[in-house]
Amino acid sequence: MIRLRLFGRCRIYHDPVTPVMKEPARIGWNAWFRSIDLVTPQKLKGEELLRRTRGWWTVESDDVARVVKRHGRIIVGQGGELMVEFESQAEADGLSAELKKEFGEQVLLAP
């Protein structure tokens, strides 16, 4: 398995940025007629984390996901980082080439 981090150009500063999941999302509940004290922590999946880049990156996250899924799996790494997992180096090279063709220098892969 090969894992590479996925970066996009920041819409404001134009430097490469990537989302990092610092803590699991905390989901609580409200009810009309009772109090519910349940809060469930839940980690986001890779594509869900990628969608959070909408508005931050110069490209649309749905377009990036469409291209990435043809070559590898979008995952969240152990440190919470947005990553793409590949079966082979050929898949990684193919994605890198397609990202460059589709988005120029706006979406990048890095170790």
Helix run count = 3
Summarize the amount of helix as a percent range. Answer: 25-40%
Radius of gyration: 16 Å
Order of SSEs? EEEEHHEEHE
Classification by helices and strands: alpha+beta
Describe the model.
The chain is an alpha+beta fold and 111 residues long. The protein has one domain (2-110). The protein is built from 3 helices and 7 strands. The chain has helices at residues 46-51, 61-68, 89-103; strands at 2-9, 16-17, 25-28, 39-42, 73-76, 82-86, 107-110. It is elongated and about 55 Å long. It starts with a strand and ends with a strand. The model has no long low-confidence stretch (mean pLDDT 95).
Main features:
111 residues, alpha+beta, 5-stranded antiparallel beta sheet, 7 strands, 26% helix
Task: Draw up the topology in text.
Blueprint: E1 2-9, E2 16-17, E3 25-28, E4 39-42, H1 46-51, H2 61-68, E5 73-76, E6 82-86, H3 89-103, E7 107-110
Antiparallel strand pairs: 1-2, 1-6, 1-7, 3-4, 5-6
Brief overview:
With 111 residues, this protein is an alpha+beta fold. The chain has helices spanning 46-51, 61-68, 89-103, and strands at residues 2-9, 16-17, 25-28, 39-42, 73-76, 82-86, 107-110.
